[in-house]
Automatic annotation (TrEMBL):
This is Glutamate receptor 1. Belongs to the glutamate-gated ion channel (TC 1.A.10.1) family. Its main location: membrane. Pfam families: ANF_receptor, Lig_chan, Lig_chan-Glu_bd. Residues 893-902 have a biased composition (Low complexity). One of its GO terms (cellular component) is postsynaptic membrane. Residues 429-802 form the Ionotropic glutamate receptor C-terminal domain. L-glutamate binds at residues 517, 522, 688-689, 739. Residues 439-506 form the Ionotropic glutamate receptor L-glutamate and glycine-binding domain. GO terms for molecular function: glutamate-gated receptor activity. Coiled coil: none annotated. SUPFAM superfamilies: Periplasmic binding protein-like I, Periplasmic binding protein-like II, Voltage-gated potassium channels. It comes from the Eukaryota.
Length: 939
């Protein structure tokens, strides 16, 4: 044996020493620990490939050093062997240790690395310790997996964006439940309860899924191992848990690697999260390295970028960022590996370890998994997530991204979402639930021999509304009636819904269309489209009973007291005028003004003239004779002013009074109802109107609710029709509170009913559907389009004003208004009766006066009464004769008779002329005409 030369010894020493130089490069060993067991062998194999070929790519570009991988394998739960393998790697001079993927074993490796100050790089989920992070214990650990709290916040943001108020969590390990910490914390006491269900090793998940289905839950979060996800969803499909309005969120970042081919055509929404962009150049390049490297080793390997596991991508990025740290620090100071011992009494630490870790914490890199940024504790707090959704055509498809700064940000436009939804509606058949209630939906009347089936059985506003929407969006529909006929209210005792809302929650219908009011309580259980009709609560009441027309109703504008006071005033003023005129010297005058030496004066103001003056004043006609004294003129003027005011008031109130209908009882608003107890009032039981009063904080409505709740018998009805009938039969002792649209429909056809007051609130009718329905936006858009085109207005006009007797009451009220405005004979007939009686009395008085004059003539002319009657009648019937002779003797000749007549006529005319002059003078005295210089002639 030849002795070794110095050069040979040095070469051998170099080969046995860490950091040896090979072909001009210094070797820097890095260690890795992978798990090997039946459950994780495939995962570890892909991760090991990523680790090795990432090192190979780094070495291809580095000129100064070469990374040398040293790999060890342990069982996932073998902590003793894990510690021993870690110490072996330290003894071989590794500059960093990657892995393993178990929380238990990784903790042991981290403890050893912390003691020896060797960088420890992990790529799995690592929760924060119960006592909080101790910086000294985490000083040498770098974790590329998203930080636990930040990842939990990403899931919470997604749930909040989806507006999930309630959901069920299915998990398999305690670690999985810890990952959902932030999700559990977003739940408020007022929110619906969150259900948490754990699955065991039993592969039959159907009983659990059936329990969830019976609870009515449609939102499920799956926090289970990836190998269980597909099997659980497959069994969910078998028990009808993958239907249209059910949604799943898969928390595993490896969901995109699973085979969902059998589930792609399910109607439910399946959402998952992904840490990498599978279409990026980096991931395609990495997969190419893996396939080419295995091909060189004669080990066929095929993998698409869309199925790269998160752990594999993280190992690739971990090697990349570690190599960058070595490169930067090695340029400043040559990094020399050291062999370290775990059990040495004189424990040595690697001097470069802490500097490498600190540099990695401040270094920002970008890898397959996006930007890589660490906090001071070595946790990856800033990262991007892809939100992916299972589609029928392309498998998982990216729909949004998430980052800690901006939260959820959708990558597809609203137009793309809308187009996708509309496309999915083509040739789809919706089950539309409704209830019978005119005019929204009623049974169509059959013609003789006609058979009605399907949607043809019905007619109404709701049917034509959904038909118009279906034509816009291109879907089919089938109308069904809800069994209990109710709208939908929540029972706080049973904690269950009824009516249309329950039908939607039980997934027995896709839509609910009727006069269903959008309320906050219902909105917590189902979704609504935009309102297709606005309305409010109002009062249905019977019209006032119109009293029979009275013949003397023209007297009614003034009460009996006023008429008595007027009559008293009339008599009193007349007597006062009579007394004052007799006392006043100015009212005593010469009966013959032409005879200045006449010793006698007369007073024309007897009681009859006084009564005539006051009557002429109050009737607005005046009088030929007027008072002369100041006192009498003042009284007459005041009476004339009083008469004018009374006449004006009577005229103004006459028409208004005659057109006014007298009521048995008067209510004009809800306040009027609340203030009285005679008229009862109620609403539909379980409806939104009842809920409005039940939950209102307004004092008036609270009093009304208390009155309704305590009324016996009950004032609540099962339907609007029952409430209408109760109002009709209630003899104006019952009022019904209902929504204005239904009230308007009733009053268009029931002319005995009317609306009292205005609207008590404002709300709308909407089309209901299950929560988070993907079709809400599309259907709301169709409703808006119909509104803009005026079709909704046309539908309402058709079913409210035209169909089935609509508009009849409007015509009746118009005719009634015209009749009332004309003041028919029934209102003012009494005036004609009074006129006729007055004329009859005048005629009788005239006959009596004529007969009295005949008697007087017979005495004066000394003829028989019969001859006098004949002569007077002959003269009265001679219309052409305008003058009447003085009856000296009825036997005289015609000529002498005519002469006598002329003489008598002239005498009378002279007397009348004197009287007229006297009257004129009296009037002139009243009106102060004398001062104007007028004079009267003398005989």
């Amino acid at each position: 044996m030849q002795p070794w030369s110095c050069g040979t010894f040095l070469l051998l020493l170099t080969l046995l020493t860490p950091g040896r130089v090979v072909l001009g490069k210094r070797e820097i060993p890095i260690g890795a620990i992978f798990h090997r067991d039946p459950d994780s062998r495939e995962r570890s194999y892909e991760s090991e490939l990523a680790f090795r070929y990432a090192i190979e790519r780094v070495n291809m570009h580095e000129k100064n050093f070469e990374l040398v991988p040293i790999v060890r394998y342990v069982w996932p739960e073998d902590s003793f062997k894990t510690e021993r393998k870690t110490c072996e790697l330290a003894a071989e001079g590794v500059t960093a240790i990657f892995g393993p993927a178990s929380i238990l074993t990784a903790g042991i490796v981290g403890s050893v690395c912390k003691t020896l100050e060797i960088p420890h790089i992990i790529t799995h989920w690592d929760p924060e310790p119960l006592g909080g992070i101790v910086p000294e214990q985490q000083a040498m650990t770098i974790n590329l997996y998203p930080e636990a709290d930040t990842l939990s916040r990403a899931l919470a943001d997604l749930i909040d964006d989806y507006s999930w108020k309630s959901f069920t969590i299915i998990y398999d390990t305690d670690e999985g439940l810890m990952r959902l910490k932030d999700i559990l914390q977003i739940h408020n006491p007022s929110d619906a309860p969150i259900t948490v269900r754990q699955i065991d090793d039993d592969p039959d998940y159907r009983p659990l899924l059936k329990d969830i289905q019976s609870s009515g839950e449609s939102h499920i979060i799956l926090e289970i191992r990836p190998d269980r996800i597909v099997e659980l969803l497959t069994q969910a499909k078998e028990v009808k848990m993958l239907e249209e309005y059910q949604s799943y969120i898969i928390t595993s970042l490896d969901a995109h690697t699973l085979d969902f081919d059998e589930l792609r055509y399910s109607r439910s929404n399946i959402t998952a999260l992904r840490l990498m962009d599978t279409k990026s150049f980096d991931i395609k390049n990495a997969v190419h390295d893996w396939e080419q490297g295995e091909a060189r080793m004669k080990r066929p390997f095929r993998l698409s970028p869309e199925h790269v596991q998160t752990e594999s991508a993280l190992y690739n990025d971990a090697v990349k960022i570690y190599a960058a740290a070595i490169r930067e620090l090695d340029g400043i100071e040559e990094i020399t590996p050291s062999r370290l011992s775990c059990g040495s009494k004189n424990l040595r630490q690697w001097p470069f370890g802490l500097r490498i870790v600190n540099y990695m914490k401040v270094k920002t890199e970008r890898g397959i998994t996006g930007p890589i940024i660490f906090d001071n504790f070595g946790r990856r707090t800033h990262f991007h997530l892809d939100i992916i959704e299972l589609s029928k055509d392309d498998g998982f498809k990216k729909i949004a991204t998430w980052d800690p700064t901006h939260g959820v940000n959708y990558t597809r436009s609203e137009g793309e979402v809308y187009s996708q939804i509309v496309e999915s509606l083509q040739n789809k058949t919706f089950i539309v639930a409704s209830r019978i209630g005119a005019p929204f939906l009623t049974f169509k009347e059959k013609k003789e021999g006609e058979i009605l089936e399907g949607n043809n059985r019905f007619e109404g506003y709701s049917l034509e509304l959904i038909d118009g929407i279906s034509k816009i969006l291109g879907f089919q529909y089938r109308m069904e009636l809800v069994p209990d006929g109710k709208y939908g209210s929540y029972n706080k005792v049973t904690k269950k819904w009824d009516g249309l809302v329950k039908h939607l929650l039980d997934r027995k219908a896709d839509l609910a269309v009727c006069d269903l009011t959008i309320t906050y309580e219902r909105r917590t259980a189902v979704d609504f489209t935009m309102p297709f009709m606005t309305l409010g609560i109002s009062i249905l009441y019977a019209k006032p009973v119109q009293q029979p027309k009275e013949l003397f109703s023209f007297l009614s504008p003034l009460s009996l007291d006023v008429w008595i006071y007027m009559a008293t005033a009339y008599l009193g003023v007349s007597v006062l005028l009579f007394v004052l005129s007799r006392m006043a010297p100015a009212d005593w005058e010469n009966p013959h003004p032409c005879k200045q030496d006449n010793d006698e004066v007369e007073n024309i103001w007897d009681m009859l003239n006084a009564l005539w003056l006051t009557m002429g004043s109050i009737m607005g006609q005046g009088c030929d004779i007027l008072p002369k004294a100041i006192s009498t003129r003042l009284v007459a003027g005041m009476w004339w002013f009083f008469a004018l005011i009374m006449l004006s008031s009577y005229t103004a109130n006459l028409a208004a009074f005659l057109t006014m209908e007298r009521m048995d009882a008067t209510i004009e608003s809800a306040e009027d109802l609340a203030k009285q107890s005679k008229i009862k009032y109620g609403a539909v039981v379980g409806g939104s109107t009842m809920a409005f009063f039940q939950t209102s904080n307004f004092s008036t409505y609270q009093r009304m609710w208390a009155a309704m709740e305590s009324a016996r018998p009950s004032v609540f009805t099962k339907s609007n029709d029952e409430g209408r009938d109760r109002v009709l039969k209630g003899k104006r002792l019952y009022a019904f509170l209902m929504e204005s649209t239904s009230l308007e429909y009733i009053t268009e056809r029931q002319c005995d009913l009317t609306q009292i007051g205005g609207l008590l609130d404002s709300k709308g009718y909407g089309i209901a559907m299950p929560v988070n329905s993907p079709y809400r936006t599309a259907i709301s858009g169709a409703v808006l389009k119909m509104q803009e085109e005026g079709k909704l207005h046309q539908l309402k006009q058709r079913w409210w004003k035209e169909m089935h007797g609509g508009g009849r009451c409007n015509e009746s009220s118009s005719a009634g208004s015209a009749d009332t405005a004309e003041l028919g004979i029934g209102h003012v007939g009494g005036v004609f009766v009074v006129l006729a009686i007055g004329c009859l009395c005048a005629f009788i008085i005239g006959i009596l006066e004529f007969l009295w004059n005949v008697r007087k003539v017979a005495v004066e002319e000394k003829v028989t009464p019969w001859d006098a009657l004949k002569a007077e009648l002959k003269f009265a019937l001679s219309i052409s004769v305008t003058s009447k002779p003085v009856h000296n003797t009825l036997s005289e000749s015609t000529a002498s008779g005519k002469s006598s007549l002329r003489s008598k006529s002239e005498s009378r005319r002279g007397s009348e002329s004197a009287s007229r002059i006297n009257n004129v003078r009296s009037a002139a005295s009243l009106m102060n005409i004398d001062k104007m210089g007028f004079s009267f002639g003398k005989n």
